[in-house]
Amino acid sequence: MIERVSGAESVSRKFRRYLKTACLSTAILTLGCGVVLAKDADILIRNGLIVDGNGGQPYKGDIAIKDGVIQAVGKIKNIKARTVVDAKGYVVSPGFIDPHTHIPEAIEHLDGKFLSEQDIRQGVTTVIIGPDGFKSPEELRAILAAAKAKGTSQNYGCYVGHNGVRKAVMGNVQRTPSAQELDAMRAQVREGMDLGCVGLSSGLMYEPGMFSEPGEIVELAKVVKPYDGIYDSHSRNPVKHFLQSELETAEIGIKAGIPANLGHVKAVGLGNEGKAIELVGRVDELIAKGYPITGDVYPYDGAATTPLAAILVYPDQASRKDWSPEAAMTRLRATLKDAKAVAQLKDHSENGINGGFSWIKAVGYDSMRIVDIPSHPELLDKYISLLAQERGEDPFKTLTDLLLATDGKLTITLGAIKDPDLHAMLKAPWAMISSDGSHIHGNYALHPRSTGSFARVLGHYSRDLKLFSLEEAVRKMTSLPADTLRLYDRGRLQAGKVADIAIFDPATIIDKSTYMEPRTLAVGMNHVLVNGEFVLRNGKMTEAVPGHFVARQKK
């Protein structure tokens, strides 16, 4: 099976047995000189700058692919392939893995194939859905069934969510679960893990997760341990108690005996300036003690965006059907005519209804920065809290005055972040890159992270700012999430791994989306392969749908 090479040492029987058990469909031999001989392939990528995902130095070489699997990596000779790609001048890397996204959640509501061009044009070949604790096993099965039926351009895995499980068992009640209810939640977590989920996620800032104590989460996270799953969380109070909330995530993982991931971690708000640097140090200390802690970060100086009017909380919030900007402004103008109604609106918006969720309660006025205000551009990048101070008035009045002055055409970020804190999180060696993105065809406020996160890291932060090397950027998008999420057959350019591959121009890859134009797609990606099939070829979508569900794997 193995071609003989003049002058080369004979191959040991042990190595021959290894090749046989590796079940490679094409015989290969890697020599000390770095030359690989292979018989045939479906696709041959020639002359690329290979960044293999491990974090080592890039090198020029070739990649042979057959039956959706990487057969050989290196300088390949004596091979025939049906398709040859000349990658000279391009970087060839593993396809990127997004560990925290909401983009595929739209699949149930869209017709036809799910091509996710916003991801493919960034090289994202695998996404993990169900973060923030939102999805119960029943909800996950519906999404996975829709994805399988319609076909997808990328692979998808999932978390089983604490909020979804708790709501399914207990509704939205504000109390500790009974022993029977806790057992019922354990059963649902187990059901999710049997489905193939990578672990348990929680969203402790949202209802009903916000009503739970850490001990409840620990007990559910223990269910994940026999499956070798992980715990991921949107922290409980990332603005008012940033460090404590992020470290609570780590503590839950430690107490449950499983790895913990700090979901889309960021130091938001004027009061948290500098605290990301402190958090990195604290996590470094835990890792040094042997605790497996990771995090994921999206590369923007603002968290979720929303029309300012959308954060107002009315008494009938749960039953509202029309969330359009026009309806919001009609409602606000009517409310402002009644002093009692204004007082109630202020209380609900700032404190939630009966202690429930509200954005002002969660993030505060000093986290709200204006990112789009066409009628008053002089107010762009202003914080609501600082504007209120300048005007010498209550922040809620500033908020309503801004809405009236702009007719509701005003978008804010719900968590402004200072650059040094963002840079500290991006550089942390244990931090993966994520998007926290939403599908761009929705009718709600979008964030540029949905269309630009991975391209922005490669172009802006690695190439232009030189925050870290290209190979480190790729590691954060490939082998680090693959290992963290137990997707061991992906994330590296290595013989035997699945051929999820991104080929891009390192000089031009960049995000093009902004807070004002969040739907603009990234540029610079030339080819993308998913499971060995082109989904992007010469910069054009192929409409192929080779993606499939990827379950957690044993190492």
Q: How would you characterize the overall build of this protein?
A:
It comes from Govanella unica. Pfam families: Amidohydro_3 (PF07969). One of its GO terms (molecular function) is hydrolase activity, acting on carbon-nitrogen (but not peptide) bonds, in cyclic amides. This is Amidohydrolase family protein. The structure is a single chain. The protein contains 17 helices and 23 strands. 33% of the residues lie in helices and 20% in strands. It is α/β, with parallel strands linked by helices. It is globular, with a radius of gyration of 25 Å. The strands form four sheets. Strands 1, 2, 3, 4, 5, 6, 7, 20, 21, 22 and 23 form an eleven-stranded mixed beta sheet that branches. The protein has a six-stranded parallel beta sheet with strand order 11-12-13-14-15-19. A three-stranded parallel beta sheet has the order 8-9-10, with no helix packed on it. Helix 8 links the parallel strand 14 and strand 15.
